[in-house]
Amino acid sequence: MKIFAYTYTDPLIENSPDLSHWEWDIDRVYEDLGKRSQLQKLIIDSQREEPDLLLVRRLEELGDTLQDITSLLSKIEEMGIILIAVEQGYKSPFTDVDSWVKSQIDFQTGLQIDPSNKNHPQLELLKLLHEIQKQQRSRRIRQGHARKRLNAAPPPGKIPYGYRRGKEKYIIDRTTSPVVKDFFENFLLYGSLRGAVRYLAKKYGKKISVTTGRRWLTNPVYRGDTAYRDGEIISDTHTPIISREEAAQVDRLLRRNSRLAPRSASAPRSLAGLVICGECQSHTIVTRVTQRYQTKEYLYLRPASCKRTKKCRALPYQEVLENTINAVCRDLPSSVGEMDFPQLDAVKNNLTATIESQQKILTQIPELTENGVLDSETAKIRTYKLRTEISALQAKLATLPPVNLLSVAQAVSIPQFWWDLSESERRFYFREFIREIKIVRVQEEWDLEIIFIF
Ligand SMILES: [Zn+2]
């Protein structure tokens, strides 16, 4: 049995299919990309060689309009070829499909079917054609959007603060962009979204909500990329306000903060669960003591399950916290200095190299278009694909921890950094670096031993 297969792909909105998982023993595949030249060739070849079977994924691959599809269906049938639309479970032949369908369908409004016809096989085809019609309408809409994207034009809607709408792309607004830049710098310095929002109001009188602030932090536009409604991002479409490195830092800070309990919830104490009594190996819990007629409360760290007859003493929370911060600031840099990250480096270098090679291809496209190797439509599609690939790779790169952990360690080795954080923020950062804190008791005195996670 001779089997041909045909696929049509619109490169604007989809990738070429992989037919290798089909179980058919296909003799020849005709693949069209954007145009239907291979389909013409398939018809001509079929007249000479007459395959027994023609496979397509879906009937709509056979033409841009319903008329094209139905007339091709009847042509295939005339040639005595069995057609199977694999994904739709459809199999021809039907008798004189073309004229029968035309008599039943109003091509503009859809179908007029006699319900008593329910089990008629042609009804199945009609349903299918109706479905195709709907599909094609949505395809045309997607194609329209995709065409706009090829030029990386800004999507409709509100322009992010700090930019103006130019003819083809976002343009930096010289008066408002410094405010955005300053907002990011403040966030990067202190790692607090609320803090950065307050700072903006105080310094510039620019009042934004925390939600807006969070949206700014993740807005691809500030990073020089354009985002579309379906989540697709094209990289380097206009001048950024923050650099890639800053963007990656922002993402890491946000990821850390997101693991924190929201401020409104009863914030767990930063040392809770981290401190262990070196004498009885018991975990400690935070207990709260409020004295009568006084609003001030005192916090203590108390061993939760001390088995000793003379129970281990509870320690004032604030003192342990102070000691912890001092110990972290003293020991963290040297502890980080002993680390190396060969594997992480390899992954990062790999991603960076791929991004660079994609960017190199991008720069070659204008020349290839000029000397006629690529036509302008193909060049646009290639450019578009490269740019979305680059932005996906950049996003991947941004999720990796910084290789310059050494400089991060230095930044968090200043006591003021820790005191500026809320308890819940502190809790998070502690957990980034510390495995446990051991209380070492010498009679009535005590000291702390910090065990880092690396
Ligand atoms: Zn103890």
Q: How would you describe this structure to a colleague?
A:
By secondary structure, this protein is α/β, with parallel strands linked by helices. It has 3 domains: 147 residues, Resolvase, N-terminal catalytic domain (Rossmann fold, 3-Layer(aba) Sandwich), CATH 3.40.50.1390; 106 residues, Hect, E3 ligase catalytic domain fold (Alpha-Beta Complex), CATH 3.90.1750; 110 residues, no CATH class. The chain contains 14 helices and 17 strands. The strands form 6 sheets. The chain has a 5-stranded mixed β-sheet with strand order 2-1-3-4-5, covered by helices on one side. The chain has a 3-stranded mixed β-sheet with strand order 12-16-17. A 3-stranded antiparallel β-sheet has the order 13-14-15. Helix 5 crosses helix 6 and helix 10 packs antiparallel against helix 11. The radius of gyration is 33 Å and the shape is elongated. About 7% of the residues have low confidence. The structure holds zinc ion (ZN). Zinc ion binds next to loops.
Helix content: 40-55%
> Average pLDDT value?
80
By CATH, the architecture of the largest domain is named 3-Layer(aba) Sandwich
The separation of the N and C termini measures: 64 Å
Number of helices: 14
- CATH superfamily placement of the largest domain: Resolvase, N-terminal catalytic domain
Q: Kindly provide the name of the CATH class of the largest domain.
A: Alpha Beta
Shape: elongated
Predict the CATH topology of the largest domain.
Rossmann fold
> Could you tell me which ligands this complex binds, including any ions or cofactors?
zinc ion
Number of domains: 3
